[in-house]
Write a structure and sequence with these properties.
- Helix 2 links the parallel strand 3 and strand 4.
- The longest helix is centred in the middle third of the chain and has 39 residues.
- The chain is 69% helix and 8% strand.
- The chain contains twelve helices and four strands.
- It has a four-stranded mixed sheet with strand order 1-2-3-4, with helices on one face.
- It is α/β, with parallel strands linked by helices.
Length: 375
């Protein structure tokens, strides 16, 4: 029977080379055994660069991560550069997760140079852009495949999602749209009454709601309500390894989970936007009748002189695009969520932020395109 290898205690030796300090870690690092401290290894020196290596480390557990985390925290406080390139990939990943979990107590990392930070941010942006493009491509291919074989589509799930993001959202959409119409009417009345153009408040309310506010406010409401729900649901499924089970069974998660949600939002968003337009115009009509003494019939007749079918169609096109954006953002962040409760929460937050940002960008692009087309 072979003897077990001798136990070697955790060791950390620091070697100064100019303004850089090389920290060589060796031995067996166990949480139940004594380990060196960074202050003891540093010995009162203040290097501008710290480079740890683990070539001599045998077995290790969280004790090694705690020492490296302590070193990294000192570097962040003092502004020194923590060079972890020599560490194994597994240790760097765990160290990054440990630092993320203590984000409130660890100062901002100031050790990287400006060019390094810009390069890393650019690289991260490219990677995220590739992930988004790949996800959109999978959705397009899945939609093409389901268009050829519609019997494979999960219509029951799609109808359930339509009810959740459509009918169940009517109360909040009604309240927001009505108050937006009231607010626009009061704001417009301040200016129009100075020039005797009270009747033109109908034109202001009609165009504002039909072309912009109806679709945008509905999209904002659904981004916070439905987009976050999609991300939380898919993130929770990923944490429970349900998505892994689907992949093992050969079921594409995009076709099974994403496409029913995208179709539900793509169908319900234009309907909700039209409903929001009606409620917003009703709010403006109420204010015009009560504040400016404009009869409802005169309000409606004046509004029809400037609002036509092209204005309604532009709002419907925007609403459809916004619905797809919300669905894509929520499902993408949900599938990218970390396998933890905190990861699910971050995914929901990221889904809302991503959806709102893309909605504003898309609205600006639509404004430029419709202006160029004369719509």
């Amino acid at each position: 029977m072979s003897a077990s290898p001798p136990f070697s205690p955790a060791q950390a030796a620091a070697t100064a080379a100019g303004d850089r300090m090389d920290v060589r870690l060796a031995g067996t690092w166990q949480i139940t055994a004594p380990r060196p401290s960074w202050e003891g290894v540093r010995g009162g020196q203040n290097p501008a660069r710290v480079r740890p290596t683990t070539d001599g480390v045998g077995k290790w557990d969280s004790s090694l991560l705690l020492f490296l985390f302590e070193t990294q925290q000192w570097c962040r406080v003092t502004g020194a550069y923590f060079d972890g390139e020599a560490l194994p990939e597994k240790i760097r990943t765990l160290l990054a997760q440990l630092a993320a979990s203590h984000a409130t107590s660890v100062p901002f990392d100031r050790s990287e140079s400006f060019l390094t930070a810009v390069g890393l941010a650019t690289q991260d942006t490219v990677v995220k852009g590739q992930a988004i493009a790949q996800f959109v491509g999978e959705c397009v291919l899945g939609a093409i495949g389901l268009a050829r074989s519609p019997r494979k589509f999960r219509w029951h799930d799609c109808i359930d999602e339509m009810q959740q993001c459509g009918a169940m959202a009517l109360p909040i959409v009604s309240l927001v749209s009505l108050l937006v119409g009231v607010t626009l009417a009061y704001t417009g009345a301040i200016v129009l009454r100075q020039y005797g153009g009270d009747i033109y408040i109908a034109d202001l309310i009609g165009l504002s709601m039909v072309r912009e506010m109806g679709a945008v406010m509905t999209a904002v409401v659904l981004a916070g309500r439905t987009g976050a729900a999609f991300a939380a649901t898919l993130g929770n499924m990923k944490a429970n390894e349900e998505i892994d089970a689907l992949e093992v069974l050969g079921i594409p998660p995009v076709q099974f989970l994403v496409l029913p949600r995208l179709l539900a939002l793509g169908v319900m968003m234009p309907l909700l936007a039209l409903y929001a337009n009606a409620l917003g115009i009703l709010g403006g009509l109420i204010v015009a009748f009560g504040l400016l003494s404009i009869p409802p019939a005169a309000f409606w007749a004046e509004m029809l002189t400037i609002v036509d079918l092209s204005d309604v169609s532009t709002g419907v096109i925007k609403a459809t695009a916004f619905g797809l954006i919300i669905g894509l953002s929520g499902c993408l962040r949900g599938l990218q969520a970390e396998r933890s409760a905190a990861g699910v929460g971050r995914a929901a937050t990221s889904a809302v932020v991503t959806a709102l940002l893309l909605i504003i960008v898309a609205d600006a692009i639509f404004a430029v395109v419709f202006n160029a087309l004369g719509l």
